[in-house]
């Protein structure tokens, strides 16, 4: 198949995020597409993350007064125009020459909060310093000193929160990706980190995974230490167990992104909505919870908020937009999802995010 160059304008047939998914494949090498689309092992979670939303029914109310309706939300004292955030995705130069620079431009135009990955191909300083809608995602760098260096860099360039990914100390076994023989280009530039940590000085009797790589992963004590080193809110991404949510609060973590990493790390874990519902039950009612995984329609955003999310993250969908048409494509993906969400809110009878709750979700026996 001939790889098409990115589009310079949005054609009329691109109306939904699914349309963008179909289109994006035309603009990427097969191995890059496999990397983007693959899930762990049998890809059960990958499918469940999408199916979970289809299995839930919205129960609308009518004749409500929707005057002054809006999609605003408030997290860590900061107001956001809408609750659709961009998840951290590394190596974006795979998908478009402008990489994260294009994504950041689209996010700025659409006032969407962007979470920049440690594995960015674009330096932290390249995102406008005055942009209030940007967080930095940290993959632990094997020790406290190197990790703190990246935190200091994020502080210097006015990022508003630190997101620490805790569910991927080792990459998942992704068969689709391996069958496609995907590997990162040898010349790909990552300005802030190496793509692989290596355990050194292992003894013959030591296990390369348990005594090696896993010893470079963060522990709860490292999270508690890092929280003491920064004034920025610290968010943990990848929490699924309610007990870990409780520990997070005890350690001073200020928010949680409920995520199974888009089904890319450990297969057959609970869906993100299931985990969200259980975690919301054990944290304070005003504790920030964000959901990551499976959002494809405005109705999905609505359902996530009804189950207790303060905001949602999208990942693959905005990369579809990036691969298709660069910044223009990303902006159109965000706008499409936002408009769908606004219309869903109106048709369900809700004027604000605070109105959205389980009263608007039909029970299984309805």
TrEMBL record:
The keyword Oxidoreductase applies. GO terms for cellular component: cytoplasm. The active site is at residue 261. Its cofactor is FMN. Belongs to the FMN-dependent alpha-hydroxy acid dehydrogenase family. Glyoxylate binds at residues 35, 139, 174, 261, 264. Residues 9-366 form the FMN hydroxy acid dehydrogenase domain. CDD domains: alpha_hydroxyacid_oxid_FMN (cd02809). PROSITE patterns: FMN_HYDROXY_ACID_DH_2. Keywords: Flavoprotein, FMN, Oxidoreductase. InterPro entries: Aldolase_TIM, Alpha-hydoxy_acid_DH_FMN, FMN-dep_DH, FMN_HAD. It comes from Acinetobacter nectaris CIP 110549. It comes from the Bacteria. The keyword Cell wall biogenesis/degradation does not apply. One of its GO terms (molecular function) is oxidoreductase activity. FMN binds at residues 88-90, 117, 137, 165, 237, 259, 292-296, 315-316. This is FMN hydroxy acid dehydrogenase domain-containing protein. The lineage of its organism: Bacteria, Pseudomonadati, Pseudomonadota, Gammaproteobacteria, Moraxellales.
